[in-house]
Specification:
Length: 1279
């Protein structure tokens, strides 16, 4: 959104200070605007009720401009008006107002009503991912522009336009579709048809550069002057790969067609001519009314009109859509639910946003019986969901077929790219340069040779210009195109001969190896979580080896380090703390059953209660403390989105003896937030049982008395406001707003009261600090009464905001600020979230491995520090650097002071050495603790470097109160400034941006749904598995793939260099001593299997050793298994081996009469034996399959040679039989192998003897232990 401060038509706005003197407007829309902050303005004595004052906004930086008033009157006193100079476009875009005359009347009435109150200036505060604005400290506009990309996120899918909505006429599909021609409900997930399969599949396949390379080589070989290989043989590799891929793609698409056909032909009941009749899914249209029964799937996206529940309540399971197994609740509007219950036909109009892929939002409104009301995500059921615990529902189709949210989300997220693959492309470029140089050498040599022998070209036996044979061709030119063209053709022919210098097969090999590695990771029983019955998941096959190079781990706290199973522990009510001396013996079953009139509620889980608080709640409803306790638990029971589920059960025998006439009904609570479930269950344990909820009311059993409360409106929790509120009407007719939220967002909106209020506030804050230091999650509760005038203004704006199709969230956020102010503090809660098993040990192992663990959490600073200490992230000897700044200058000062105090150097100063210290010059272990408010100012270019220098000098970084986008910003801080690999791990939707930003994303299958899992590259059940994933599987995968790449480069280069030496000795003629089939089979059959098997199964160390010595993991992020130095050493070794491979047979048979095809057969066998023995020297763990692969490939090579040499039409017919009879043949192969590998053998011996690596030392230790155990067993056996 852009702001324009130069528009000529100022918008009329009015002060809201009369409604909310302490309002905190927190909105991404506010924060996106570039503000000019104005101080208080002079007031006028008169009021003009026809128009509001016009505020002229000028672009003037921080300069304070006076207000220019069109009329002489202003109804507001100077102390009440804190004017923020803001973009008028904002108010034009978000007109939250009643009709103007009525609005003025109401606001003026409220102004007179609250005339006696002391009003403060309106502050616009940003929490989380938005900039914080204060009227006292104006900030320059460029600063906001500077940080917008880091602070804000726009979802283009939601940018619908209210002037062009999607119109759905209920139960009138003809009228709905005639005008707009919406898509039908037929879906198609297949890619191809019979006609398009061949061209489309080939087009997709040739997007791969490797295939284009193959195609170019095959095309060159078809030209007569360049036919180095047989034309059919040259096409074989390309056709083989294309055919195999096409068959695989065709089979997969056939399965998609079959699935689509089955899905499209399913049947459901659709209202036709006033009756519900069966209709196949693919013929359903937008606007039709559909009936779904229990356990049936939803065929399309439908707005719920009614259900078997009279209140319009329905339960759905969204596992097929988002992977979450817990039931979700959906509501029909009470207006339509009543009409459905009465059996009447429903007709009306729905205006909704265009189709988009956001499954967690829906913006629409409905016109029904001349009333207009809003529709939201809770009113829509999506395709792919299943109806549960509800007999039937009726809904109207709004999105069908390809426009449903499920189909729009079916596209796979873009895959990440392996770091080693990037390095591999760098080396591939070097190999391309070598290939080009070799081809130039051959072409240049050919040109010189032709120039030297230009007078002999007519008489040379193998190279001549004209035909000499008798016949019609006698005297004609014979395959000679002149010196320049012959030189050029020689260059192209060389490319064909040396084509495998670029290891195209390496990409396919790596995919197969990663697939095998993933299988063993998934089947690792040590990473199986029995509590959730979940195995490790590999959701991305491209980055297995990156797991072995991680340097930074960014972790969420709640649900990742902790169990996210909340237990209500402490309560602060009216300034008094309860629950501190709660004895375990109080956990009696009777306390979990709440007596009611003729009915008793039994909670699913036992909850400890405080007897003193129970006594307070059973006193008469008189006295401030008793009333505050009553409203406290009423807020716990009412201010939530939890749904009660009642099941008939029986109580224990002891309780039956007391109240035999009472039946016991078990009650369970379903909700998306474990916090809310724990709070509602706690309220029930204390006698405030929520047992019924509809879209319009809730029923709470208060110590046996059923109270029905009308829900007038609900402002749900969001990461900007960090609180939620509900407006309810009591049976007495009184209206209250009940609010709960984080302390940082709640204390700023409390009313300024008496000394007693201040004392309660101070006591509550003290209790909160104590709860946080114990590691408890805290919430603050508050409430206030709403007058009729306040309610009327709020309802008007709430209706306008909730029915808006554009920026509904921002408008509702502003509307909430009207009532979330001047609140009376009720108390606070403390909920325990226990650490997961094995977390401290896992963090300690990761730290020993040299991996830095940063925790990014939305919890309070005290809570985060307490959890950090308990999980051994923080230790007692660490010096804590705490950064809590409220302005840019303060943050800059805090960072500079910390850097100077602990001697922190800049990254550039430390970058000269890879082993820079994490501590300052004083040698002290440092821990940085920083809050989200400070990050608002720091995550800008000029302070990012300061934070980076300080954070990378600390052993631990703990970020508190951070918003989701700030988590991603912290990850990007490291990614953009270092080459270190990052890993992010989390369990909730708020971790998705962080997971996607990191090089490797890991999702936890936790209590907060599966959004994190669906966005991740790997998923697992518990945080402790991260230790084994990185230290064991990550290490193995990195070592394997690093060696695999180097070996493939070596394997192909030694073969090409052998051909290169041969061409140099044959007058640069680009002829080959090897048969065409031998050249093709070399990479495909002869040497491919061993590399795949070793890449999957080889282990340099056992998992026990890797877990026992975490420092061995450091070889990965130090790039010891694959780097440019190893590449050049490998190329030198390859050069030596190719020379030995070529010249030993040449000198051995120089005086013999052996033909060239026999020589080629010897070279083929020798190079296959050489590269396999080379591989065998480097195998660290021999398995049965490894033996079969290495030695079997040599046997297969011999078998293929025998078969090819047995075909009479081939020029190499019977050569292998002649060679095998000669002892010289076998001795030559042995001599080649020994001489070629001797330097490599000596190099390894010297290096491992005098400069052993940590891995080599650990391997020797393993061998010594193994032999020691064997000897001890022998001694025991002999004794």
């Amino acid at each position: 959104m852009t702001t324009d401060n130069t528009t000529n038509s100022p918008r009329q706005i009015g002060s809201l200070s009369c409604l909310c003197p302490n309002a905190s407007f927190s909105s991404s829309v506010f924060d996106d605007a570039q503000w000019n902050l104005l101080g208080e303005q002079q007031h006028q004595d008169k009021v003009n009720e026809d128009e509001f004052d016009q505020i002229e906004l000028e672009e003037g930086g921080d300069e304070i401009k006076p207000l220019e008033l069109d009329h002489s009157g202003s109804p507001f006193k100077e102390s009440q008006l804190g004017v923020l100079s803001q973009s008028r476009v904002f108010f034009e875009q978000f007109p939250l107002e009643c009709p103007r005359e009525e609005r003025i009347r109401r606001i003026l009435s409220m102004e007179r009503h609250s005339n006696g109150n002391n009003h403060d200036n309106i502050h616009i505060n940003g929490n989380g991912n938005v900039a914080a604005l204060e009227i006292e400290k104006p900030r320059s506009k460029h600063r906001f522009r500077h940080s917008q990309h880091k602070s804000l996120q726009f979802d283009e899918d939601n940018l619908s336009h209210e002037d062009n909505p999607r119109l759905i006429y209920i139960n009138d599909p003809r009228r709905t579709n005639d005008k707009y021609e919406f898509t039908g409900n037929e879906i198609r997930t297949s890619k191809y048809t019979i006609i398009t399969f061949l061209p489309k599949n080939l087009f997709i396949q040739f997007h791969r550069v490797a295939y284009l390379y193959f195609l170019a080589i095959a095309a060159l070989n078809q030209l007569p002057p360049l036919a180095v290989f047989g034309r059919t043989v040259s096409l074989f590799p390309l056709l083989f790969v294309l055919c195999v891929t096409a068959i695989k793609d065709g089979y997969e698409d056939w399965r998609r067609h079959r699935s689509d056909r089955k899905e499209n032909n399913r049947e459901t009941l659709v209202c036709q001519s006033g009756e519900f009749k069966l209709k196949i899914w693919k013929k359903i249209q937008a606007g039709e009314v559909v009936q779904i029964f229990a356990n049936e799937s939803i065929p399309c996206d439908m707005v719920l009109l009614g259900s078997s529940d009279p209140s319009g309540l329905a339960y759905i399971q969204t596992m097929n859509l988002d992977g979450e197994s817990n039931l979700k609740t959906r509501y029909a509007r009470q207006e339509t639910a009543s009409a459905v219950s009465d059996g009447g036909m429903i007709s009306g109009l729905i205006r909704c946003e265009p189709p988009n892929r956001n499954i967690y939002e829906f913006t629409a409104n409905m016109e029904f019986n001349e009333h207009r009301f809003p529709l939201s995500q809770s009113n829509i059921v999506l395709r792919g969901c299943q109806l549960k615990n509800t007999d039937w529902i009726i809904g109207v189709v709004v999105y069908a077929g390809q426009e449903t949210k499920a189909m729009l989300n079916s596209a796979a997220s873009p895959s990440k790219r392996s770091r080693l693959e990037g390095y591999m492309n760098r080396e591939t470029l070097w190999l391309s340069i070598f290939l080009f140089i070799m081809c130039l050498v051959v072409a240049f040599g050919m040109g010189l040779w032709l120039l030297r022998h230009k007078d002999q070209l007519d008489t040379l036996p193998y190279y001549r210009k004209i035909y000499f044979t008798p016949g019609r061709d006698n005297g004609k030119r014979y395959k000679y195109y002149g010196l320049p063209m012959e030189t050029f053709f020689s260059f192209l022919s060389s490319i064909i001969v040396f084509q495998i210098m670029i290891p195209i097969s390496l990409y396919i090999t790596m995919e197969l190896v990663r697939l095998g590695q993933s299988y063993f990771m998934i089947e690792d029983n040590h990473m199986y979580d029995s509590s959730s019955d979940s195995r490790f998941q590999c959701r991305s096959l491209n980055i297995n080896e990156d797991l072995g190079q991680i340097r930074y781990v960014f972790s969420d706290k709640t649900g990742t380090l902790t169990e996210n199973k909340m237990e209500f522990q402490r309560a602060s009510v009216y300034g008094k703390s309860y629950g501190s001396s709660l004895p375990m013996v109080d956990l009696l079953p009777e306390q979990n059953i709440v007596a009611a009139a003729g009915r008793r509620w039994k909670l699913k889980s036992e909850i400890a209660v405080d007897s003193e608080l129970i006594e307070l709640l059973h006193k008469d409803l008189t006295g401030d403390e008793r009333i505050a306790a009553h409203e406290f638990f009423l807020t716990l029971a009412a201010c939530n989105t939890v749904i009660p589920i009642l099941t008939h059960g029986t109580s224990s025998s002891c309780i039956k003896s007391e109240l035999q006439e009472d039946s016991v009904e078990a009650i369970d609570y379903q909700g998306e937030s474990p916090d809310e479930q724990a709070l509602v269950a706690a309220a029930s344990a204390y006698g405030y049982t929520l047992f019924e909820r509809t879209s319009g009311h809730i029923v709470i059993d208060v110590n046996g008395e059923k109270l029905r409360f009308d829900v007038l409106g609900l402002h749900e929790f969001d990461s900007v406001r960090k609180r939620m509120s509900v407006v309810i009407r009591f049976p007495t007719g009184a209206v209250k707003v009940l609010v709960k939220g984080a302390d940082t967002s709640m204390f700023s909106i409390l009313a300024n009261g008496t000394e007693m209020d201040d004392r309660i506030r101070n006591s509550t804050q003290s209790h909160l600090s104590g709860y946080s230091s114990q590691g408890l999650r805290t919430l603050v509760l508050a409430a206030r009464d709403l007058t009729d005038e306040e309610l009327e203004v709020w309802q008007c704006r709430y209706e306008d905001a909730s029915t808006s199709l554009t920026d509904r969230v921002a408008k509702l956020r502003q509307t909430a600020a009207l009532i979330e102010c001047n609140l009376k503090l009720l108390g606070a809660t403390g909920i325990e979230d226990k650490l997961q098993e094995g977390v401290p040990e896992a963090i300690e192992s990761l730290r020993q491995a040299g991996i830095k663990v940063w925790v990014l959490t939305g919890d309070k600073q005290e809570t985060a520090i307490s959890i950090g200490l308990s999980c051994k992230l923080l230790t007692s000897d660490m010096h804590q650097i705490i950064i809590n700044g409220n302005s840019e200058d303060e943050c800059r000062s805090l960072l500079a002071d910390a850097k100077s105090k602990y001697g922190v150097k800049s990254w550039r100063g430390r970058n000269s050495s890879l082993k820079w210290k994490e501590d300052g010059i004083l040698g002290l272990p440092l821990a940085l603790i920083i809050d989200g408010n400070s990050l608002v100012y720091i995550l800008e270019k000029d302070l990012e470097s300061e934070l980076f220098d300080l954070a990378t000098s600390c052993r631990v970084v703990l970020c508190c109160r951070v918003a989701p986008l700030q988590k991603a910003g912290i990850v990007d801080l490291i990614k953009s400034r270092t080459d270190d690999m990052t890993l992010a791990i989390g369990d909730g939707a708020n971790d998705v941006s962080m997971i996607q930003m990191a090089d490797v994303g890991v999702g936890i299958c936790g209590q907060e749904g599966r959004q994190a899992v669906m966005a991740s590259d790997f998923a697992m059940g518990q945080f402790q598995f991260l230790k084994r994933l990185l230290l064991v599987h990550g290490h193995w995968n990195y070592q394997r793939v690093g060696y695999l790449i180097l070996y493939n480069f070596y394997r192909n280069a030694v073969f090409v260099l052998m051909l290169f030496w041969y061409i140099l000795c044959t007058a640069f003629s680009t002829t080959s001593a090897l048969t065409d089939w031998s050249s093709v089979f070399y990479s495909v059959i002869y040497t491919s299997i061993p590399t795949i098997v070793v890449g999957i199964l080889d282990k340099d160390l056992s998992h026990k050793t890797l877990l026992l010595y975490p420092k061995l993991y450091g070889s990965g992020y130090r790039h010891e298994a694959y780097n440019l130095r190893l590449f050049w050493i490998m190329m030198v070794d390859t050069l030596w081996q190719s020379l030995v491979l070529f010249y030993i047979p040449l000198y051995t048979y120089k005086d013999s009469s052996i033909d060239i095809w026999s020589m080629g057969s010897l070279w083929t066998i020798a190079v296959v034996v050489l590269v396999n023995i080379h591989l065998a020297m480097d195998v660290r763990r021999w398995e049965v399959f490894t033996h079969f692969a290495v030695w079997g490939s040599i046997i297969i090579t011999y078998a293929c040679m025998v078969v090819l040499d047995s075909i009479p039409v081939f020029p190499n017919y019977w050569t292998i039989y002649h060679l095998a009879k000669s002892p010289t043949y076998w001795l030559t192969i042995l001599l080649i192998t020994v001489v070629a590998l001797l330097p490599r053998f000596f190099f390894k011996v010297v290096r491992q003897t005098f400069w052993p690596s940590d891995i080599q030392i650990a391997r020797e230790l393993e061998i010594l232990r193994k032999h020691g155990n064997l000897e001890s067993k022998k001694d025991q056996g002999s004794s």
